[in-house]
Amino acid sequence: MIARLRALSWPLVWLRQLSWPEFRHHPWRHLAALLAVTLGVALAFSVELINRSALDEFSAAVRAIDGDPDFELRGSGAGFDETLYARVAADPRVALASPVIEIDTAGIDPQGKRVALKLLGIDALVAARLAPALLPRLEPGAPRFAMLDPGAVFLNPQARQRLVGHSHSGVGGRTDRGDSDNAPASEAMSVRLQAPDGPVTLRVRGSVAVGGPALAVMDIAGAQTRFGWLGRLSRIGVRLAPGADRAALLRDLALPPGVRAAAPEEAAQRVSALSRAYRVNLTVLALVALFTGAFLVFSILALSVAQRQPQLALLGVLGLGARARLALVLLESVVLGAVGSVLGLLLGTALAALALRLLAGDLGGGYFPGVAPSLQFDAMAALLYGLLGVAAALVGGWLPARAAQRIAPAQALKGLGSHAASAAPGWLGPLLLALSVPLALLPPVMLIPLAAYLSVACLLLGGIACVPAGVALLLARVRPARNALAQLAIERARVDRHTATIAVAGVIASLSLAVALTVMVGSFRDSVSQWLEVLLPADLYVRVVGGSGSDTVALPPALLARAAALPGVLRVEGQRTAELQLDPTRPTVALIARPLPDPAQALPLVGEPIALPAGATAAYVSEAVASLYGATPGTTLNLPLPSGASARVFVRAVWRDYARQFGAVVLALPDYQRLSGDMHLDSLALWLRAGTDPAALQQGLREFATATGFDATRLEFASPGEIRAASLRLFDRSFAVTYWLQAVAIGIGLFGIAASFSAQVLARRKEFGLLAHLGLTRRQVLAVVATEGVAWSAVGALLGLLLGLAVSVVLVKVVNPQSFHWTMELAVPWARLALLCAAVLAAGTLTAWLAARGAAGRNMALAVKEDW
């Protein structure tokens, strides 16, 4: 037993007696590696917690709304005939059927601003058994049967906060005023919700427990009457009687066109799919810091092993075998990774809590509007990211550990051992670079570009493995004329090129990723700017706010003719936007109906449109629809229109759409009106004569809308410049986290090159002493070291730039199309890239010079005394 305990305690003994002195003598060097692992784990874990918390909150709200049926009968956006409910409820195989109306509308807050809102019309007596969270909770003083009042509404916490401005102290409970049916109506708060015929005022009689975005619940009869849904339903939740056969029931019901049976988990799956690509890409970007940290651990431990070579050799003579030396360095890596991971998990949890408080779980993507989630700590995720931190440190420490294992003790004690890290095989770098090409061409896995990420990793690892050859190639022809010191520095940097791999590996990794992200974001922003130029040709745009694709957001029918008759208006075009469910497991697709006199001019097409067959209806699909549904030019596509009808259209061309990740279909407005019978419009585009006053024009349209009984405050006007500025602000907000992750990665890289150069210079005190014996002054020694710093930093910056450009091609041409289903043109912001490279060059040079000042002291000649 004692022998076993001693065997188990040896790691602690080694760490205390062999590793701790090294940590204590060079604390800043090891703190650099520790900080890299900590930041990498913290960023990745915080992104995971934020996304998981927001997704769980949003999914919980969806499940609470849908309840717990066996299946749902769902219709299109316009709903279906309510007579189906009578047939379903009367069937003996159905234990419970709950009719529901879902309306996307808007409320008006106390400041007059509009708040996007989902309104549910339910039968409270039935819905409570299927979806208990929807059961209205009466406020004190509300009538006992207020849940059946067609003029009463019940708000969830988000809707109450946004529309009322505060929480009522008596919600869901009693007060000393009692619960009288005769409570005066003036005591009830009121809210205004948008209906097709104008604002509807409803009394707030209580609350519902559903979390998530703003939600209002009212009696189904009141919703049908006040919001234009008489005779229609959105869905029916069905719970089967014990032993009932679902397939037989659906077959006997003979569902009408446009109605389908949906699994209850479909809504949650759509929510997850909506943000999956954004979440995965954000997590990968967060892991960039951890990837860079692995190289920093490699640099620090490689230099530590090189500096401790005599001590390790002496330990070898005293009986510490090669495998034990390997285990010792790996154990140091594990300690760095474990401590860094623990600190990273703590920091990541704090960052996630702060981000949820400030950003409400959105992270700039806009996928969880209205969600204010609380932190959901995940122990399994913490374990996974903690192990990733340890694994990164182990990967970084493997080559230094192998170098310690291969030390020949007798030769090392005589000063004959090599201080350079063992070089990677010459074929490894080119092989990895070549392997990155076929990986980039592979298709995504479950809509995630896993092969493309592996291609990026091969590019980075292969590029770093080629550093020695790159240094030799780039410095081979550098011959500073008439400058012996510069020649000495360049020659040493060239000959000792394997050491350069240790010095610049981390900065090459971080710089290349920073360059790639800079190019990707710059290319995307430039493409979005050009895309807006094509889509915004008019001088003024008018739209009705509150939602999309429903009667509640339709413009007055006569507004188009009135706008065309106003002085200064040259031309007016109307547009209709709706939502289509092409696949129940995927988010909805936008349907845009607009005039298309010349599609090549009106849309940013990808290629030329093909000829339209006789009698066919032309459709123009976005890249996402073409990618997700195979709707390439020349194919036909079946569109389930909002009216419930179905139409087959011919795909003429594909166009770029950066606003809708899951796709859009454009039809000519006359074709849409003919197919659907929907004559409503929800936006107008106006071309004006030169000198026309837009303000007077807007006032004229508002006055006409008011005269028709329309709420003119629902009209929103914007110029192309305003829309462009707002769109680019939204773009910058979406990529704000990317900018921060990019800054952290390059910061870790710069810190790494500083630590690497410092450690190398401090390990070369004997060399400086020899130079002093040869007659070089302290200033000349500093000049030699600074020149080496310039050479290695320049090589690192150049290789990082080239690798970054290669990675950016994969990101722009492969990752973005596979993740978000859109393409863009590559745009290289050379000025910003020059600044990044200059920062690397300055950091490496300055660090080498400062470290040399400390190592090349006045007594540097005595550093060679131990060799006499």
Q: What keywords describe this structure?
A:
868 residues, ten-stranded mixed sheet, elongated, alpha+beta
Task: Provide structural commentary.
It contains 27 helices and 22 strands. The protein is of the alpha+beta class. The strands form 3 sheets. Strands 13, 14, 15, 16, 17, 18, 19, 20, 21 and 22 form a 10-stranded mixed β-sheet that branches. A 6-stranded mixed beta barrel has the order 3-4-9-6-8-7, surrounded by 4 helices. It has a two-stranded antiparallel ribbon with strand order 2-10. Helix content is 54%, strand content 15%. A hairpin with a 2-residue loop joins strand 7 and strand 8. The longest helix has 43 residues.
Task: Provide a brief overview of the structure.
The protein has 868 residues and is of the alpha+beta class.
Task: Bin the strand percentage.
Answer: 5-15%
Radius of gyration: 34 Å
The helix content, as a percent range, equals 40-55%
Number of helices: 27
Summarize the main sheet: 10 strands, mixed
Ends: how far apart?
A: 49 Å
How many beta strands in the DSSP annotation?
A: 22
